[in-house]
UniProtKB/TrEMBL annotation:
Keyword tags: Magnesium, Metal-binding, Transferase
InterPro entries: Isoprenoid_synthase_dom_sf, Polyprenyl_synt, Polyprenyl_synt_CS
PROSITE patterns (UniProt xref): POLYPRENYL_SYNTHASE_2 (PS00444)
Protein name: Long chain isoprenyl diphosphate synthase
PANTHER family given in the database record: GERANYLGERANYL PYROPHOSPHATE SYNTHASE, SHORT CHAIN ISOPRENYL DIPHOSPHATE SYNTHASE
Family per similarity comment: Belongs to the FPP/GGPP synthase family.
Single Gene Ontology MF annotation: metal ion binding
Domain of life according to the entry: Archaea
Length: 283
């Protein structure tokens, strides 16, 4: 295993075979557009991702039944949706570094970044049409809309002096947790899970997504552009904010694990638990 790859993606050690399969599926999807102007930029944008959302989808499918080619195609769709949001978020946040390399807009410029985001949505629609499942298409559509809504809410709150913890959680739910929830839910649907299992895995994904974002913000707390930083600034004692964040992290992590109790015990459920533990330690 390449040490450099492990440092970039600490999930490789425990989920290497799954990540390899997801990467192969992504490569196959991109090959469909090898003659496109977007082919090389898309390859660049998809290099180095942790593939957490695809992993959640694949493991959710396995945990309730089958994991076939459709699940891997769907995993590409959720990763493409994440990629599209990263491209646009990096422009909004004026990022100068992403996965130890230039963000997309610095590498290719603003115009290409905006148009590529549009093209990626086309890729997602194409995959959705092949899956031929209206419920999955609806989940992807709702997720895309909620992620955009979250970005708009965050943009508004950045100039507000009345940001609350409830506002902060709402932004996390919309921008981050909704994609985790959709990944788990789509996986459960493709795995032919029962409605109870689908809802349980959706709850796992949602709570894991919030915990994931809290951990990320705690590790990057000195970033002036983070909404979390606004809460610190307005607090009379920043330690109170950090203590509350730690408590919230533990609470949402426990909720995610509790949701998995409705899933039959087995290797896939164990891997979902391990994925939660690993992402909480190594985001």
């Amino acid at each position: 295993m390449d040490r450099k790859n492990f440092e970039i993606n600490p999930l490789i050690k425990d989920f290497e075979s799954y990540i390899d399969k997801v990467d192969d599926a992504i490569k196959q999807e991109l090959e469909l557009y090898s003659a496109s102007e977007f082919f090389e930029p898309l390859q660049y944008s998809l290099e180095g991702g942790k593939r957490i959302r695809p992993l959640i989808l694949i493991l959710s499918a396995e945990s309730v039944g089958k994991c076939d080619e459709n699940a891997y195609s769907a995993s590409c769709a959720v990763e493409f949706l994440h990629t599209e949001s990263v491209i646009h978020d990096d422009i909004i946040d004026n990022e100068i570094l992403r996965r130890r390399k230039d963000p997309f807009h610095i590498k290719y410029g603003y115009n290409t970044s905006i148009i590529t985001g549009d093209f990626v949505l086309g890729l997602i629609l194409n995959i959705s049409s092949r899956l031929d499942n209206a419920r999955i298409g609806r989940e992807l559509a709702i997720t895309a809309m909620m992620m955009s809504e979250g970005e708009m809410i965050e943009t508004r709150l950045e100039t507000s002096e009345d940001v609350t913890f409830d506002d902060y959680v709402k932004v996390m739910e919309y921008k981050t947790a909704t994609a985790f929830e959709a990944a788990a839910k789509i996986g459960a649907i493709l795995g032919d899970g029962t409605e109870e299992q689908i809802l349980a895995l959706a709850e796992y994904g949602k709570n894991m997504g919030i915990a994931y974002q809290i951990r990320d913000d705690l590790q990057d707390w000195n970033n002036e552009d983070k909404l979390f930083n606004t809460l610190i600034k307005k607090s009379s004692d920043p330690r109170i904010v950090f203590d509350r964040m730690d408590a919230m992290l533990n609470d949402y992590s426990k909720k995610a694990k509790t949701a998995l109790r409705k899933i039959n015990d087995g290797p896939a459920r164990t891997r979902l638990e391990s994925l939660l533990d690993l992402t909480m330690l190594s985001v």
